[in-house]
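Fold these two proteins, one after the other.
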Amino acid sequence: MKVIGKIIKGLLVVAFLMIVCVSGIFIYKGYNMYKNAVEEMSIEDKVNEIRAKENYTKIEELPDIYLEAIISVEDHRFYEHWGVDVLATLRAAYNDIRAMSFVEGGSTITQQLAKNLYFTQEKKVERKVAEVFMAVELEKEYSKKDILELYVNSIYFGNNYYCVKDASMGYFGKEPGKMTEYESTLLAGIPNAPSVYALTANPDLAAQRQRQVLEKMIKYKYLTSEEAEKILE
């Protein structure tokens, strides 16, 4: 039994060392990806590029319920973390390992902004690592208000709408600030899977997603159940 125990301990040590080595390789590759990206174009220049868009919308021009819906469904600890939600990342890693596939991202709003500014949608470990480095840098340089504002001006809403104003004008025919509570919560659910929830493609699925958004808003105390039901009337 002692021999078997030593063998098991030895295998565990080897497995641990392999994990450390593999993790180190991905961290090294991810850091290089991050460094190469910011050397090609600085974060400041990228941000200015987004802000220079014709349909860029200031956060003050957006309904509060829309912003609350986005935070509830995308990153409910947005105001608490430093760019990376460790709990969400660990949960996503656990679920990905169980499924042996990228089934859950765990990305914060800041990480999603980093991806939108610099990286592709390709699911690679080193890209996720680069995204983390970029998110931390964004949090150092910009306020939460700035990050949320940049996020809603750089996400995809389906139907070739790449910012909140394009989506609001395209789907509802109105400025974002004039969206109703119903429209705000409906629009907030689309970026999770734009090709699935685009209103022109799958209005029924978009409505189902809206209910999920409202459930999250109830869970995180932005709405009561009665207020959520009234929105859907």
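Now the second one:
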Amino acid sequence: MTDSVQSKLIISSAITAGSLVDEILGEGETGADAELREVSVPVESHGTRLDRALAGMVPEFSRSYLQQLIEAAAVQLNGVTATKASTRVKAGDKLVIELKPTPQSQAFKPEAMALEVVFEDEHLLVINKPAGLVVHPAPGNWSGTLLNGLLARDVQASGLPRAGIVHRLDKDTSGLMVVARRRQVMDQLVAMIAERSVSREYLALAHGAWQGPKGRRVDAPMGRDPRNRLRMAVVDLEKNAGKTASTDLYLLQSEGSFCLVRCRLHTGRTHQIRVHMASIGHPLVSDEMYGGRPAAGLGRQALHACRLAFTHPVTGDALEFRAPLPEDLAAALTRLGLGYNQIQ
């Protein structure tokens, strides 16, 4: 982290910002648990919204929490209390934020763990994530996440939003992820993913005998399931909030009432493959959230990020990585009489 972004911690025992701050930060006065954090807006945040700039400079707190602090008059911009999250900031602006530790902020702690790194240079990492590892701290998983492991592995990660994580895999999805080690590289990778210039392929073991041509594209917008906000669903954008979503599917093998499918993402919506596969009558094995059932001894959703390819944002080299099947998925395929050739 540069000097202009480095946080200066000052313990505050005397400042209060009204009843709303008390509600957000905790009952009573700020006390010894609160701090004032002084930060300067870096050049890369010039012209951005105040809440977005803060989220980049104080990454251990959520953007929604920081928005609440602004509404509670707990943020000063160049010595004046900020009142709107949408205020545009300038490079060099001085911000003072009154903070109190939250479960989310306390989750941003280094935790040593074994990570399978398949590629590393000074700019980025490519990791083969095991099933069961949560990528980012969240309610119910405030520790033991990939983010915690990255913070312990690389001192530079503490100066990056989300420790350099630019995309996610679900907890029970295994496979390849790219992680940035520099802020500029992180921004470039995020842009590349948005521009669909990062190729991400998955293997999905699903219920149902495959019908029709081997290859098909599912273009089906997605959003929160209006009947269950914990799920995602294919939605009608004229009636529900959502975003376009596109997935290419290609049958590798079908045997009995199961099929092995290669999936290529063109967009990166939450649970996209799981929802799209279920929408065409092929829910993933063991994905009970979307209609799948346990089978072949597999205790987690049968999804594996098997291939990742992109142009290195700094060197310009063409990079391609493949992750072999994890043992549990390979064993399930064997039990079902399905085979997989990694070069398919």
